[in-house]
Amino acid sequence: MSGHATYQPTNRVLQWLEKRLPIGGLVHSSFIAYPTPRNLNYWWAFGGILSFMLGVQIITGIVLAMHYTPHVDMAFKSIEIVMRDVNFGWLLRYLHANGAAMFFLAVYIHMFRGLYYGSYKEPREVLWILGVILYLLMMATGFMGYVLVWGQMSFWAATVITNLFSAIPGVGDAIVTWLWGGYAVGNPTLNRFYSLHYLLPFVIAGVVVLHVWALHVTGQNNPTGIEPKSDQDTVSFTPYATIKDGFLMVCFCILFAWFVFYIPNFLGHSDNYIPANPAVTPSEIVPEWYYLPFYAILRSIPNKLLGVIALFGSIGILAFLPWLDTSKVRSARYRPLFRQFFWLFVIAAVGLGWLGTKPPEGIYVILARILTFYYFAFFLIVLPLLGIFEKTKPLPNSISESVLGAKA
Amino acid sequence: MTTVSSAEHSRRDFLYIATGAVGVVGAAAALVPLIAQMNPDASTIAAGAPVEIDLAPIADGQIVKVFWRSKPIFISHRTKKDIEEAQKVDVANLPDPEPDSERVKQGHDQWLVVIGICTHLGCIPLAHQGEYDGWFCPCHGSQYDTAGRIRKGPAPKNLPLPPYAFISDTKIRIG
């Protein structure tokens, strides 16, 4: 799209550099002149918040690694030393631990935003799939980071999650032994999780570059779901999007700071302040809140292999979303039926999260089965059929028209 | 294939394919140490040597937990009632059918030795709990009977038996 300013440095040094490495032009065209739809709402600010949270996690993580010892006899103690002795260690660790939760909160909002406004539809399929990969990487990274604490919940989370692979027929046990590097979760497991926990955030950063690249090829979706047609439909990224993203980021940081400074252990489990004990399983095992819906899906199915397949399937199915949703209309604004099913899906996902904290017995099992059924039915039945049967509302002619009314 | 260059296919293409194949084999060979290093190392395997356990101090009805290859092993000194309960079960109706005689060594009915790891997702079941007087797994509610057989819940299999043998009437070697 033309019409917005291009990068023309007046400074001699910058001109010299630009001829050799046009990095200034790249930044300018990507983050300053880049045209964004003029009707973006605050739900579009979470991409920026996620980038910020990734930065927070990498910076706090690198400094925590300077004080952490990845050995079964010393890991738990080294974290207590971080909490008590290291200067500002408590702050850095609480930022990192609550930062993970905030990261997931932001990614869930970001994903539901994409789902609501149909941001995964043609031509943004690759952008969406890169997002699913990022989410999987986040889950793996978060899980391994949680294990590093080497408390009771860490140890048993590692045991339960690695044992998911034992459900694979034939080679399952060999794979689990290979993952552990022993006959149970132990020192080799802790060591490799530490190594990978350090690596994966940089892999995430790399995939984020691809994600942003794909975004800048197709351009952003917007609340109407129709493409910008003229310069009237867009505004430049800076200052409009930068300021808007920045404002919400500050609000988000207030929430983050509230957790860090007032209720830093609210989202954690008290059993993780008991050092890992391979001889005793805690009376109840609960994952971190951001994995709870998937944990509920796993437990709702009474067969081990099928439960594990459902668990991985519930995440893997997201990658096929662009083809499961057959409707040509993107935004839920113009899809009255989809909107109702969407909110039911949000309720099902949150409900599964709540059920994940409950013991797997009685009414909770039945409810979890109903919600698990709806979770899969939403993707496999509702979305394909809605595209055929739903009567969508008329789309506006342009983004400007939807903002300013038909007269403009 | 009716391209003009078809006459040149044989030699140069053979070299390309051969070079590519060597490259692929080399890359695959390089993966072997990278993958194999994650399997248990020599010291871990050595630490998995057999252990001998003296059964004499284990009282009637008591269940003790010992470790072998960093796995908890339950040694249950079963009471008469435990044994009867385990033997009178209709084996055909069990999720993982195994008669009690296959769960213990012949002539040592009172000793049950099992690996104390739930076959569902690896938690350690609690002894003397659940509806079958055996074990109850706190993670996902699997229940085992006095022969360590799965009776209820999501676990697919009975508690596995470690390799072990009686050295004398009151001593076993696990491993």
Describe the model:
The complex is a heterodimer of chains A (408) and B (175). Chain A is mainly α. Chain A has a single domain, classed as Cytochrome Bc1 Complex, Chain C. Chain A contains 16 helices and 2 strands. In chain A, α5 packs across α10 and α6 (125-148) crosses α7 (152-163). Chain B folds into 2 domains: 4-36; 45-174, Rieske Iron-sulfur Protein (3-layer Sandwich), CATH 2.102.10. Helices cover 24% and strands 25% of the residues of chain B. Chain B has a 4-stranded antiparallel β-sheet with strand order 5-6-7-8, with no helix packed on it. In chain B, strands 1-10-9 form a 3-stranded antiparallel β-sheet, with no helix packed on it. A 3-stranded antiparallel β-sheet of chain B has the order 2-3-4, with no helix packed on it. In chain B, a hairpin with a 2-residue loop joins β2 (63-68) and β3 (71-77). Chain B starts with 8 loop residues before the first helix and ends with a strand.
